[in-house]
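Forum: Protein Structure Q&A
Topic: Joint prediction for protein chains with partners

I've read a bunch of threads here and the consensus seems to be that you should model interacting components together rather than docking separate models afterwards. I'd like to see that in practice. Below is the full input, 718 residues plus whatever partners are listed. Could one of the regulars post the assembled result?
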Amino acid sequence: MTAPVIQIDHVIKSYTAGVPVLHDVSLTIARGEVVVVCGPSGSGKSTLIKCVNALEPIQHGRIVVDGQDLASKGVDLPRLRARVGMVFQHFELFPHMRVLDNLCLAQCKVLGRPRADAEARSEALLERVGMTAFAAKYPGALSGGQQQRVAIARALAMDPVVMLFDEATSALDPEMVSEVLDVMVELARSGMTMMVVTHEMGFARKVAHRVVFMDQGEIAEDSPREIFFEAPRTERAREFLSKILTY
Amino acid sequence: MSSFDFEEIHRSLGYLFFDGMRFTLTLTFLAALGGVVLGTILAIIRQSGSRLLSSIAAGYVNLVRALPLVLVIFWFYFLVPYLGQWLTGATRPVHVGGFASALITFIAFEAAYFSEIVRAGIASIPRGQEAAAMALGLRSSQAMRYVILPQVFRIMLPVLLTQTIVLFQDTSLVYVLSITDFLGAAAQIAERDGRLVEMYSFVAVVYFVFSFTASQGVRRLRAHIAVPH
Amino acid sequence: MGYHWNWGIFWEPSPEGNGTYLDMLIQGLWTTLLTAACAWAIALTIGTVIGVLRTVPLRAVQWVAVAWIELFRNMPVLVQLFLWYFVFPEVLPPSWGVWLKQLPNAAFLTAVVGIGFFMSARVAVQISSGIEALPSGQRAAATALGLTTAQTYRYVLLPMAFRIVLPPMTSDLLSTIKTTSIALTIGLGELTARARAMQEFSYQVFEAYTAATLVYLAINLIVTLAARWLEARVRLPGYGKA
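Posted by a regular:
Agreed with the consensus. Here's the joint model:
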């Protein structure tokens, strides 16, 4: 069995002293796996995903990404982060740069790619997410769904080993959610390792290998897709599913 | 009231503008440039993790902002020669010319004000921008240089320009060191020819026209920036 | 370093014969505070009037306010002081002009009027911003109750506007105190002027200016604390920013 891409061991995290947001969380994601993390607000799922690329520090436990322990002495965090793609709830495109420049910036400054190469790769990715026509536009001229697709392309431009999605569709108007989910489905089917924090259970049903349910800072259930949806093992997961699947 | 001597003004135009106003504008331009650069550095230091450096920068900014410009001018006038002596290892205080002394003073003074403007600008950028830059693997310095600061200057340009207009007016205070800026030149002529009314009225009008025109320009710029492109 | 330190200089008698150098600085401090207080009083009074006029729904009246603000904003304070001190007496009828120039407190009065008018423009901008920051419904509600324009300003708009602009006004008050130093150019013996005099008489440059610096810092601290206390006292629960 090859080493997991992400290994989270017994992580404890607090924001202010004494108020733990994550209680002893352990999770493994193997290469090519698509893991959906769901749960009610305040369950710690967004915090957890931010710990995976060290945007948030942890107080206890260990996180190993692509073979590197985040807390180890010689670790070069920026370089490691370059291998972990992240898509944010509020897209976070850089408003003062055109779409193409948004994609090229990190390729050139972090990976050292020549501008011409970066542009070529960027154009290919924009085509993959269906945004070729917008390469010269500023983010302000794009709708939410369009911006998020560009954000996904921007993360992919770094050739990441894993893609993290932090509630990527939660800030979108309903009619734009599917255009983004379509891109994420295509990505999953192409074999990308993905950790997806989301409420979109339809997406989970389609492409997730496993579903992780978090509640109050703990992982309450971690089951393969079919089991989670047909016969959830825990009471809390059952309750959660019944509430969100009603509509 | 004796008649207003317009000829006096006409005669003095050369000296007033070629000597006086040139000094004023040069000082304003260079001090603004230097002040923005130093102010941005101070703002970035205050943002950084280092508690010690951050406190020193904050202390400097708060100290300078609490003092009258006149006092700061006197301070630097006496301090700079000793600093020069200390820096160059000379045996006696280094003599610094009027312009150099004024320039150092104004850069040091205005930097404190520019730094507050830049700090406010940095604070207004959503936190997610920094997170997105870090998530892409950019280092802090790269994030600041390519993502944060460009946005800060776009947003803060009108405020920075307004502060520069204030600086333009503040330069008149070099009068206390008898340096020949626009006002100083007028004062010299006024005293020599006994024509205070003409000279000071003219100076007031010129300052007014320059400042008013500039601030109207900034107003227009502000309106232009507000339109989404 | 060729400089000879002497911190005991403050207790040595000054050549002016009025006491020690310390006494000289204290006189300067007193002058600074008195000038600033009087100038601020003028700035506050005129500034509030102009600020109110700026927001009155009458074009012509607003224009007057705008003209006032722009006039005093677009010239350096020093130039304004010179206009009051040198030009104003000449513009008046001869007998008035002569009387003005012979006043014993000319520098003080000029500083108070000049700085007062200069700052009145700043105060006017603050007040008008404060009024404009209020929800437009406030004015409508007051009118609907039958209050006249004057009553609306007096009882509804101004009390809230003052609370809103208290913080930036504090900064304007501190600015007024610092601006008094500019009046040394017309002979006002305020703190910076006295520090300079001390420097010229005793050659103890750094001691003199350090003392002045410490005093300005102390004034800054006291005024800021007092303002914070005032803000806390007039704060309304549930209203305003965190």
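The mean pLDDT of chain C is 90.
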